[in-house]
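Lecture 7 notes: from sequence to structure.

We start with a single chain of 356 residues. Read the sequence below before looking at the structure.
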Amino acid sequence: MGLLRTMMPAKFQLLALLAFALAVLFIENQIQKLEQSRAKLERAIARHGVAEVEQRHSEDAGREPSPPAEKDDTVIIYNRVPKTASTSFTNIAYDLCGKNRFHVLHINTTKNNPVMSLQDQVRFVRNVTSWREMKPGFYHGHVAYLDFSKYGAKGKPMYINVVRDPIERLVSYYYFLRFGDDYRPGLRRRKQGDKKTFDECVSSGGSDCAPEKLWLQIPFFCGHHSECWTAGSRWALEQAKSNLLNEYLLVGVTEELEDFIMILEAALPRFFKGATELYRSGKKSHLRKTTDKKPPTKETIARLQQSDIWKIENEFYEFALEQFQFVRAHAVREKDGELYVLAQSFFYEKIYPKVS
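Now the structure, written as tokens:
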């Protein structure tokens, strides 16, 4: 009996140890199964991810790439000559800027001085070329031509302008200083109260109608060289001609302003789409007439034409007119009194290498 009591605890101990061993085996078996399940799940997730990437890549390959957003850095400078219908044309730009999404900026110089100081020239070039928020931009003002390449600028603006018969321009300016115009009729002008006609001014040798006053369109195109502002300078004339041909996109004439606007709309629709219709509609903002202007007599005109200054200024005007008419002949046609823009007259062929 004593021996039996001694052996019983040993059996229980063995059974307990066996049960523990079985439990450990069972737990290890379950852990192994869980590990296998986790591995299968990870492989499945990985296969699914690869399939998704491949499908997305395949879809992207078959789709046309999205074009990058177009960056439009175009800048136009209209260094407008006074009394050449510049306000009429500029107001069209103001009416179009919201619809066509460009900026219009007026260059307002102190006392309307068309010549900038050297430091202002540098500042102006820097502003125009680096002012990203104002691009595309249309700058206008009574400023002499400025060569941007002289200042190391990377992007040169496109210049445009309008010229007018020199005597007609001077007559218009003479009366404008005295009577203003219908654009701002209440504004007091510098010579207001002076009732002397242009004919009377010329016959009496007045300073406001002297031949030197004709010297304006050439220096505006010649630029910021001192010789540009020497009245009657042949060098200035040739420089102005060179700039007109090589630095200006288009130079129109006041007498054919509608043609100028139509050509600009055809060449630069980004800015001038709708300009021709606006001009033809006859809105007051696009028409500006000098008040109480009296045309000069033949005697007055003949007297001014004796001046060498007139001869040189008129030579430049005739040169600009001839160039504009050449451009117009290849840009528009007339039918039944109406002007029409010519259709595109070029295309591409024999393009190599061939695209498979």
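The two ends are 105 Å apart (CA to CA). Keep this in mind for problem set 3.
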